[in-house]
Amino acid sequence: MIAEKTLVAITGAMASAHAMRQINPDVVAAYPITPQTPIMMNFTQFAADGLVDTEVVTVESEHSAMSACVGAAAAGARVMTATAANGLALMHEIVYIAASTRLPIVMSIANRALSGPINIHCDHSDTMAERDSGWIQIFCENAQEVYESTILAMKWAEKENVLLPVMVNQDGFIISHAVENVELLPDDVVKEFVGEHIPHAPLLDVEHPVTYGPLDLYDYYFEHKRQQIEAMKEAEKVFPQIAAELSEITGNEYDFIESYKLDDAEYAIVTLGSSAGTVKYVVDEMRGEGKKVGLLKIRVFRPFPVKRIAEALDGKKAVAVLDRSASFGAEAPIYSEVKSALYTVKERPILQSYVYGLGGRDFTPEHARTAFERLIKGEFFEGEGYLGLRE
Amino acid sequence: MAFMLKDMVKKEWRLASGHRLCPGCPAPTLVKLALMATDYDVVVANATGCLEVSTTIYPYSAWKVPWIHNAFENAAATISGVEAAYKVLKRKGKIDRDIKFIAFGGDGGTYDIGIQALSGAIERGHDFLYILYDNEGYMNTGNQRSGATPTGANTTTAPIGKVSLGKLQVKKNITEIIAGHGKVYVAQASISHWQDFMNKVKRGIEYEGPAFINALSPCVRFWRVRTDQAMEVAKLGVETNYWPLYEVVDGVYKINYKPRKPKPLEEFLKIQGRFSHLFKREGGKALIEEFQNEVNRRWERLLKLEEATKQV
User: Is residue B305 classed as helix, strand or coil in its secondary structure?
Assistant: First the structure.
């Protein structure tokens, strides 16, 4: 049954904070960094007002934030955190440990360009640097998706046989600081959806002592990594069921990907994050001009939905893949993975890579239109193109 | 109440035998004594180091208590997360018993790479005891210098050579750094004085808030002493005033043991192979003298701090 919702005008950061308030995690350990700060400011205000039962650990660095999250989650608590950019980079070592220890931590990321040079605005270099860390990675187009993805993430992370941490990405400033209409679910509906946290072999069960994080050498490490690979496959398997459960409450659809006017499109753009909204606007405009264009939005980047992407793009004439980060000396990450996903399709489209929006550079409808028009005119070039870059 | 051997033999070892620490290493003894000093249930966090790698080689574990190793520099942050989880779950009625939290770290994981996480956890006031077993170098990786390595010691990254007498800097005084956090129980102890150590563990656990014990724990391998000499050399550290036994509770100093006639520092140095070059090479004598002066300065300062913070 679709729950009665409350319409509010809030930022993406506040949408994260409300999701956290309704999930009411046992422990939140975090350190402030622009543009994540308002997530934590809003959440700690909820805690100060007694709206949550959470133990907030205001650590002295992001490295300690993730370290405390690992300790708390292993102890048996439901744990959340948030960070961005350099903070995520400082956590990097423990981000891997959290995943390999199979701790279902949910982390909001307000995506921001990694230094250097130092820059506080949006791009995806921070989260793309963690794409092999073993975390599930969700990308959001707007504040509504931030809110719902965070709730979905908690349940997904804790699912039996998954037990993997999840990053919920929102574009720094563009989503985190922009006010939008967001529909909130009632507190009790969210509480019921995420359910009671039942920890697996918690440290605080002193009658059944467990050893977390032993030395694991060449005789077992490989098998443990295989288990992690299988856990991510399991995550992919159970996602549709969790998504369907949330759909029943919200009436919204959740899938690994979102196709927008794509079925009969001949030309497509593939992107993720807030730029998807801009591309939708341009698709509508160009459809009005009789152009057969469409959008493929990737919502779940890890596990990477290879088959879904292949099916969605099979038979298209040409596709532009947009990346908000670069891989120096190699293809941009989303482009590279989409290209690889299309290896086995019957009718491979011509592909074009574009890098856009680094360090918070605006991504405008003109940029999306340029990408589409070049596809239609057959203007392709080797390597990646750039949108919004001064030459 | 003093800890008596006749009672201790009846107690269960919460660290089992069969671990793979070196013969003569006092670190496991230190852990066993610490866990015997309290009857509470405990959860242990362990920084990367000798103790961690030698007690938990998968699929084995020597730990009979819940135990977590996260990384090298974050034992304090990790245990702070465990403690935070305990507080909230207890508040919610999901846990009914009293549990205490202990972190073990070596000097590399504490004086150097882990000092930030430790400082943060203490400042936040988590209720835990951090036990530093100080063997004065990165012994797990083969005797590299740390901030805890004393002047003149021969290590693999500050080796003696044609123009060098080993480490030339003074040892960092982490006990004082931690005491500087204010609201904290701080103690310096030595494996050679086991009753004193156990009393400090008990007091540290019972102190409401963060507690820190810096325990001298010789590395027989890289201090270049015989495997039966760990206690002897640690004792000489205390008798020479190189390693004073004292406590700082909320800023108030108390020296637990004042040698009636302190032995010259040379007696601590000369039985250790890592200092043998100081007795043979040019400049060694001067360096020992300088080192002795530093030990005297620190001891005099400690006496004055005890006097200055004496409670009326």
Answer: helix
